[in-house]
C-alpha cells in the first residue's frame, strides 16, 4: 500500500457540491451550508476522550469534595465547547467499578480514594445533564474486562464481584482481569454496563481497546480450564478467544439497540488489525501488536459486518512513521469501512504533541492538523476523537488550537 496524499476537489466537483447544498471547507471536506436561520448543519465527529482510570484526566486526584469534582468536570465540558467539539467519551467503568450508583459494582476508588465509598453525588448523571445542556453528546465509556491495575484481590472492596467469584479472575502481567472465556463473566459484565444505559439518556456506549490483555512476552494468559470446558468445536484456542470477544460485541450491540434505541455503540481498537505480512488483507505496516492475533479482537469483521455503529481506530502514529504510517492506516481503515453501515472516526494522539520523547514529527505543532487534512480526502473518515481531555484543555504545544483554527471554524453536529 503506497503513501497516501490528499485528494483535491475538481472545479466540476465543487460546482456539483454547491448545487446540492454543500460547500467545501479549507481542508477539502464537503460540508453542508448553513440552514435558513444561518445555523451550521455540518456533521462530523469532533470528540474527546475523558479518562478517569488512575485519575488520568478527571478528577485531578482522589478525595476532592463533591463540589470540587463537579467543578472540574464542568470545566472540561466547557473546554470541549470552546474547542468546538461535539462529543465526550466519558470513562464511567474504568476498572470493574462504577461512576454511578450501580447495584452490580462498587463505586470507583478514583473518586474518593476508597473503592466502594459513596462520593456523595452521581458523576454519570451529572455528566449527561451538563453535557446536554452545552449541546454535547455524552458516550458512556466502559472497559469490559479489566478489574484492577494491581494483582491483589484483597485490595478490592469486600463486596466486589471479583472477590465473590474468584474463579472468574485471571491474574496477568501484574493486573487482574475477568476471563472472557466464561459465559457467566460475559453475562455479568454486560449486565453491569447496561445498567448505566438503562438508567441514563446516554447518546452512545463506547469500548476501548482492551479485550484480552496486551500480551506480555513469555507469559501465557491462563484460561486452560475455560478452554477445556467451552472451547470444543473450535480449530484453535485463538479462534475460541476471538469468538468470545465477538459474542460480547454482538450481544452488547443488540442490547443497546433494544434498551436505548438511537444510542450509538462504538469501539476504539488498537489501530492495526493485521500486518499485510501476516495476512494480505491487512495493512502495509510492521506493528508489534495485531488486534486479531494478540488481543483476539477481529475489528475488521465488526466493521464490515456492521455489528457496531462506529469505529475509532487509535492511529497514534505520525505521518511517515515507518512501522505504522498514519497515512497508510487511514487509507486501510477507509477501505475497510467503505460500503459498511459502520461509521469511521480516527483516534488522534493529541497527548504526543510537543512531547520530546515522541520524536521530531510530534514536536511540530502542525502534525495533528496535517492528519485532519489528509483524512479529509477520504469520505469514509467522518471525524476525529482526541486523546485526551487533559491535553485538550492545557494544549501545551498549541496543536489543538491549530486544529480548531484550521479545521473547526464553525460548529458541527456529530453524525447519526
Automatic annotation (TrEMBL):
<dbReference type="InterPro" id="IPR003790">
    <property type="entry name" value="GHL10"/>
</dbReference>
<feature type="signal peptide">
    <location>
        <begin position="1"/>
        <end position="23"/>
    </location>
</feature>
<feature type="domain" description="Glycosyl hydrolase-like 10">
    <location>
        <begin position="44"/>
        <end position="358"/>
    </location>
</feature>
<dbReference type="InterPro" id="IPR006311">
    <property type="entry name" value="TAT_signal"/>
</dbReference>
<dbReference type="InterPro" id="IPR052177">
    <property type="entry name" value="Divisome_Glycosyl_Hydrolase"/>
</dbReference>
<keyword id="KW-0732">Signal</keyword>
<dbReference type="Pfam" id="PF02638">
    <property type="entry name" value="GHL10"/>
</dbReference>
<keyword id="KW-0378">Hydrolase</keyword>
<dbReference type="GO" id="GO:0016787">
    <property type="term" value="F:hydrolase activity"/>
</dbReference>
<protein>
    <submittedName>
        <fullName>Glycoside hydrolase family 10 protein</fullName>
    </submittedName>
</protein>
<dbReference type="InterPro" id="IPR017853">
    <property type="entry name" value="GH"/>
</dbReference>
Amino acid at each position: 500500500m503506497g503513501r497516501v496524499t490528499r485528494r483535491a476537489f475538481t472545479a466540476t466537483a465543487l460546482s456539483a457540491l454547491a448545487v446540492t447544498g454543500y460547500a467545501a471547507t479549507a481542508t477539502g471536506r464537503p460540508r453542508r451550508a448553513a440552514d435558513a436561520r444561518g445555523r451550521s448543519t455540518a456533521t462530523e465527529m469532533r470528540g474527546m476522550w475523558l479518562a478517569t482510570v488512575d485519575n488520568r484526566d478527571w478528577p485531578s486526584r482522589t478525595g476532592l469534595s463533591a463540589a470540587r469534582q463537579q467543578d472540574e468536570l464542568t470545566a472540561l465540558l466547557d473546554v470541549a465547547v470552546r474547542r468546538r467539539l461535539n462529543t465526550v467519551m466519558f470513562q464511567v467503568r474504568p476498572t470493574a467499578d462504577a461512576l454511578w450508583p450501580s447495584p452490580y459494582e462498587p463505586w470507583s476508588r478514583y473518586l474518593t480514594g476508597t473503592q466502594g465509598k459513596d462520593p456523595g453525588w452521581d458523576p454519570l448523571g451529572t455528566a449527561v445533564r451538563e453535557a446536554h445542556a452545552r449541546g454535547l453528546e455524552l458516550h458512556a465509556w466502559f472497559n469490559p474486562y479489566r478489574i484492577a491495575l494491581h494483582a491483589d484481590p484483597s485490595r478490592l472492596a469486600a463486596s466486589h464481584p471479583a472477590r465473590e467469584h474468584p474463579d472468574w479472575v485471571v491474574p496477568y502481567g501484574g493486573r487482574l482481569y475477568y476471563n472472557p472465556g466464561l459465559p457467566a463473566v460475559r453475562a455479568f459484565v454486560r449486565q453491569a454496563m447496561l445498567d448505566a444505559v438503562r438508567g441514563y439518556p446516554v447518546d452512545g456506549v463506547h469500548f476501548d481497546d482492551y479485550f484480552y490483555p496486551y500480551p506480555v512476552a513469555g507469559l501465557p494468559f491462563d484460561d486452560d480450564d475455560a478452554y477445556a470446558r467451552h472451547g470444543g468445536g473450535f480449530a484453535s484456542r485463538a479462534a475460541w478467544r476471538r469468538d468470545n470477544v465477538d459474542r460480547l460485541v454482538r450481544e452488547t450491540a443488540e442490547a443497546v439497540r433494544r434498551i436505548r434505541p438511537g444510542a450509538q455503540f462504538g469501539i476504539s481498537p488498537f489501530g492495526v488489525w493485521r500486518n499485510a505480512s501476516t495476512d494480505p488483507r491487512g495493512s502495509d505496516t510492521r506493528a508489534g501488536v495485531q488486534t486479531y492475533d494478540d488481543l483476539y479482537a477481529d475489528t475488521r469483521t465488526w466493521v464490515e459486518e456492521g455489528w457496531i455503529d462506529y469505529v475509532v481506530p487509535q492511529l497514534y502514529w505520525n505521518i511517515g512513521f515507518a512501522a505504522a504510517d498514519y497515512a497508510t492506516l487511514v487509507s486501510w481503515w477507509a477501505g475497510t469501512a467503505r460500503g459498511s453501515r459502520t461509521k469511521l472516526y480516527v483516534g488522534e494522539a493529541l497527548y504526543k504533541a510537543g512531547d520530546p520523547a515522541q520524536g521530531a514529527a510530534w514536536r511540530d505543532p502542525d502534525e495533528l492538523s496535517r492528519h485532519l487534512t489528509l483524512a479529509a480526502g477520504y469520505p469514509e473518515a467522518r471525524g476525529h476523537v482526541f486523546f485526551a481531555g487533559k491535553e485538550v484543555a492545557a494544549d501545551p504545544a498549541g496543536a489543538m488550537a491549530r486544529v480548531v483554527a484550521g479545521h473547526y471554524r464553525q460548529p458541527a453536529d456529530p453524525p447519526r
